[in-house]
Structure to design on (341 residues):
């Protein structure tokens, strides 16, 4: 890839159509974890906020956090989602050192909130971003690689795992694919995450501090030539600033165009975004940082989802949902419009 010359941004837009999608993870600000009573204080000494449940020890059983369920419903309502009358948790199986149980309790085909939308204002126009789902899960632990120059596993001499974060309530907000944004695709991505961050912050359910990891964004990007089917997407993982969300889309558009121009094919994979030290070109578009390969992207089949046998289903009382909806604060976008008027 390093030998391929990147085309100019305007040239890419003239020949390709981008399609983006965003998966935003929000750590909820509950006092205790999702399925146990451990504290969730940020910055505590490693492995001091753990117990048999969040460490996945044999014989331990989870109990769902009502406050986390309530906060997820509030987010769903603020995004104009339908709230499920009945849903349940599932086990998502994968094997990483930061997952003490070797599976994550999440939601799969029966999420808590579905079919919403969020309007964002950009350059005098309104872009409606469809929300596919808002679901609740538990966060993973944190791995620290020691001895290398990059902080990543390659070149490190040892790796340490802190399980304090494992089990913290995590809400995942998944958009529908967003086609038709053209040259504004990077800006639409940033505007959406910015507006979503303001909404979650106004609800008081998370501090949404991206620099601390309490809000993280996975950016999906693909390119196709006009009239052709959507291209193969890549997923840039754990982007942790609004600026980087925009630049991750820009850099993937340039990289994918270079691969396609050279007759190559795009691999469906996860990637990691790395900022460049300096920028050049209008809006930084010619030097927007770059992404590096992560791993091939799993499908739902690879995760071997099945219903979580240790948790009962969730059936929110309609009266409770109506009460939460009536107590929602004024949406930030509407508040801005009111004050401007």
């Amino acid at each position: 890839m390093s030998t391929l010359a990147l085309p100019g941004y305007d040239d890419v837009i003239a020949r390709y159509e981008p399609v983006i999608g965003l998966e935003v993870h929000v750590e909820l600000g509950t006092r205790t974890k999702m399925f146990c009573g451990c504290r969730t204080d940020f910055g505590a000494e490693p492995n001091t906020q753990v117990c048999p449940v969040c460490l996945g020890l044999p014989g331990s059983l989870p109990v769902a956090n009502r406050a986390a369920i309530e906060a997820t419903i509030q987010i769903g309502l603020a995004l104009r989602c339908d709230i499920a009358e009945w849903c349940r948790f599932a086990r998502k199986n994968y094997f990483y050192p930061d997952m003490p149980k070797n599976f994550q309790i999440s939601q799969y085909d029966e999420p808590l909130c579905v079919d919403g939308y969020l309007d964002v204002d950009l350059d005098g126009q309104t872009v409606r971003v469809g929300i596919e789902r808002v679901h609740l899960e538990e966060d993973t632990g944190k791995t620290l690689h020691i001895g290398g120059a990059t902080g990543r596993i390659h070149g490190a001499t040892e790796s340490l795992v802190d399980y304090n974060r494992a089990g913290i309530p995590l809400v995942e907000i998944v958009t529908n694919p967003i086609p038709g944004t053209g040259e504004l695709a990077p800006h639409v991505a940033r505007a959406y995450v910015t507006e979503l961050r303001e909404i979650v912050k106004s609800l008081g359910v998370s501090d949404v501090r991206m620099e601390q990891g309490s809000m993280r964004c996975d950016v999906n990007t693909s390119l196709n030539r006009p009239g052709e089917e959507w291209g193969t997407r890549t997923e840039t993982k754990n982007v942790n600033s609004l600026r980087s969300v925009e630049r991750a889309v820009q850099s993937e558009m340039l990289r994918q165009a270079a691969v396609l121009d050279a007759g190559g094919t795009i691999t469906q994979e996860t990637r990691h975004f790395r900022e460049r030290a300096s920028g050049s070109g209008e809006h930084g578009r010619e030097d927007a940082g770059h992404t590096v390969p992560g791993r091939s992207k799993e499908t739902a089949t690879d995760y071997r989802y099945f219903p979580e046998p240790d948790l009962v289903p969730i059936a929110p009382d309609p009266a409770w949902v109506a009460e939460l909806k009536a107590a929602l604060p004024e949406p930030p976008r509407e508040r801005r419009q009111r004050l401007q008027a």
Remarks:
- The radius of gyration is 21 Å.
